[in-house]
Specification:
Radius of gyration: 21 Å
Strand order of the largest sheet: 1-4-3-2-5-6-7
Number of helices: 13
Helix content: 25-40%
Largest sheet: 7 strands, mixed
Strand content: 15-25%
Order of helices and strands: EEHEHEHEHEEHHHEHEHEHEHEEHH
Structural class: alpha/beta
Length: about 350
Amino acid sequence: MAESASRGETSGERILVVGPSWVGDMVMAQSLLMTLRDRHPGCTLAVIAPGWSLPILERMPEVDEAIALDVAHGQFGWSVRREVARGLRGRFDRAIVLPRSWKSALVPFLAGIPRRIGFHGEQRFGLLTERRRLDKSVLDQTVKRFVSLGLSAEESARGSFAIPQPRLMVDAGNLAALRERLGLSASPAIGMMPGAEYGPAKQWPLEHFRSLAEALIAEGVEVRVLGGPKDVEAGDTIVNGLMGAHNLCGKTRLADAVDLLADCKQVVTNDSGLMHVAAAVGTRVQVLYGSSSPAYTPPLTDNAEIHYLAVECSPCFERTCPLGHTRCLVEMAPERVHRAIHAWRATIARS
């Protein structure tokens, strides 16, 4: 059954975006939405995506309507897709399909949306009315690929177009309630995000996070570890026995993470979905890259510092280290990140 959250009426072209299935990708999709809003004033923008993403979409002022498509992982969900498509019939002029899978293009096709645009993918002949070739040498970043689908094929092929930086709205009232409920102090806070959904080859060692947390707490900084239910044990490893450290993993909703990250002075994070959230609320981001590349999925902000050792075997883009040593992250010392945090604090103090 489809659930939606609507935000007002507009006129002009009616555009449906089929969104991605990862937190970070959903944040990067805002760059496309911002581009569409800028290029087509007065358009109506709706996004269809997994239900978990609605709290993120509700923080994007460009989105007029967020529509949930809840299909269990690994299931085709024919009846759900058909029902959602039935509710979309006659409502949109154009659909932009961001994922490259066959099933992601099915709802706009079943809904009879006249223009359906996406990249060549899994045998999508007929499902899309405009199938574009993906030139990875030109569209060398995920966000560029998203934005390009909102442009003409000619402009997309050139690859020289602006990429707006995502900017999520912050709920000050919710933040105040979270501070009280979670027992957070008014001290300057630094967030830590030890998780990475893709796999352990993207995760800085927990002992490094722990060592950095100890050094920061000794300086009077509050440490907040954020993540989902899968990260609870990792959070415990970082904060156990440390006064002034809070393991918030599994205790907050995705929308809460937006507000809590906006409240942090800086965050230390793997290349993860929450990294993109932190960047999109303007918080200083210290990003740790191992198996992935900062050239492919960089934080879309001017307020970030990249930590990347570029050892000879990286980026491998594997879920687990194929060589078994994860040197790309193990050899990234906590002292390096600590120095970077201090350097930025000193710069802000002088400005």
